[in-house]
Amino acid sequence: MYKAVFLDFYGTLVHEDDLFIEEICDRILASSTVLTSTKEIGRYWWHAFSSRLDLAYGHDFKTQRDIEIASLEDTIAFVQSSENPRELSEILFEHWQTPALFEDTIEFLGAIQVPTVIVSNIDRGDIEAAIQHNNMQLNSIITSEEVRSYKPRADIFQEALIAYNLQPFEVLHIGDSFTNDIIGAHNVGIKAAWINRKNKPHPEHCTPDYIVYSLTELIPMLKTTS
């Protein structure tokens, strides 16, 4: 029996920003002066973002907002686009603060009987705004911003365990990112459930403890006995 649940937020409880990323890539392509494609723009942008995220640790920590703007600046310069990176980044930031809930989120949160802790890479201000926007009753939040470390590094999971006086075997972490959530949780000995909403192929280098396609599949194991 688990004593607590750690939950990723975007892609797990609320919708990710995929559609807005596509919109931004389309706009960059429309004003680019080099021969490219939205797929190539998206790939370059993701590499620029991920590289900065990997380096953002401890004294070198940068917020997701700062990393997003910098990676967009790199991408726009690389494809010689006339778009304004700060204007485009606001499209993402607005979504981060006002994301839509997945249909199974409310049922899941209402049915489980163990404490929940949000463990997220997104900046605290954006998480809190999103929770308020959706009228969610979630008060326990650990973000990379206060830990100064991003998933899949172990720091954020360890901080959550310490903050709530939990042992790794007492917790189940649920998330949609195989690298950030499954590998990240396993790095500290926490069992992990992969919410695979898009039916992605299973990577061979790591095995989740559970694979589900809806949060409601996890409800039976997260109810306490009377």
UniProtKB/TrEMBL annotation:
InterPro entries per the UniProt record, alphabetical: HAD-like_hydrolase, HAD-like_sf, HAD-SF_hydro_IA, HAD_sf, PGP-like_dom2
Keywords carried by this UniProt record: Hydrolase, Magnesium
Cofactor(s) the record lists: Mg(2+)
An annotated Gene Ontology molecular function: hydrolase activity
Parts forming coiled coils: none
Any single biological process term in GO: small molecule metabolic process
PANTHER family, per the entry: N-ACYLNEURAMINATE-9-PHOSPHATASE
Protein name: 2-haloacid dehalogenase/putative hydrolase of the HAD superfamily
Organism: Paenibacillus cellulosilyticus
